[in-house]
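Blinded run. Sample ID left blank on purpose so nobody reads anything into the name before looking at the predicted structure. Input follows.
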Amino acid sequence: MPNPRRQPRARAQPWDAQWVREDSAPFRGGQGVSFVARAKDGSGPRVFVKTLRPDRVRDAKARGRFKREVGAYETLADLGLPQILDHNAETWKDRRTPMYMATELIEGVDLDTFVTRGGRASVDAALNCVRELASVLNRCHEAGVTHRDIKPANIVLRNEDITKPVLVDFGLSFNNAEEDKLTRLNEEVGNRFLRLPEHSSGGRFPASDVTQLAGIFLFTMTGHEPRHLRDESDRMPHRRPEARAVLEDLLEQRQLLRVLSVLDKAFATDLSVRYATAPDLISALENAMRSDEEGDDSLEDLLAQVDEIAASRGLLDLAARRNSLSRFTTSITRAAQDYLSRGLQWSGKSISGEVSGVDGEWQHTRVSVHAPGDDPSYSVYRVEARGTDEYVLLVDGEEVWRGTSADSSWNAAVQRALARQFLANQANRAKGNDC
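Blinded prediction complete.
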């Protein structure tokens, strides 16, 4: 009779042929279950074995992502990432076979553990950490690989040294956007450390990696995760009270102003405004962190201080909006001037002496197109900024156009408004003469 106390023998797994798991708790992640192991013959150092989670073994997408991660490590073999030693990625189409990879074991802790247990970095150490990561990240991008999941848990510190970070877990990376079928364009890429708007539709942009790297810099210095580019009070991560207080404590006044300005750009909602490459971000941070000599009162330095304060208070963005609004307003008067070729006249004037709003969010002017000898009959043309890059044109309070630039649709809308204004004035004049 069978012995009721005998436990069923565990089913042999593909990695059992070469690796023996150490008696320690496994590491569980979104896609896999990992553990530390040694070679079965006892040779060589310990390794890190990552396996596809049992409940995802038959998932074609999960298997494809696992294969892609192996490919990323092989593509980036000379970048200081963990060396891949063994895998069975070639079985990815066989849904019956569990998948695994064995990589070099990085002795140390991840950045999340290091910081949360009280290892918040100094200014220099934080900069050195992201500088090392930026170097690797830039070479990844040059090789056509974006990571898409840069967070403290995916950064291991060799020997717990903050200045020796190693980027791991390329499970969400990709090499070729057209071949990347594993994350649909409308499928969100999850990263709770810093959720980016472009990832809500599966966006694949190197600049997104750079934004997450800026998040690593902030987290390493302050211990606060950015989570979102804007919180419920519309504050950027570095301008929230807890993180701002730490930065004020760590940085000199001018360093603080410059770092805030760099992070304003790094965490902009509009992807096109952010730093496009990792070296761009590092260069800006290095310049911001430099220490200034006392008593430098050269014109160049004084103007630089003015710009730093303006940037830290968002005044440069305000100036950019005002310039954009001015271009729209100028194009209205330019369109009115076109009527001179038809023998008509035009005139314009500001309203109560105001040309733009105090906050730089709108500009308005009065314009009239009329025949020679007729009294001007003005309409109010008001351009308003909406959000970061959208504008609206209202004529006498009615919206007639909405867009991002003074393109052909803008010109057509202005021309229609001017023509309708002139014809309406003529109709009213004719009606008055009939009376």
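Unblinding after everyone has recorded impressions. Confidence is low (pLDDT under 50) at residues 174-189, 352-360.
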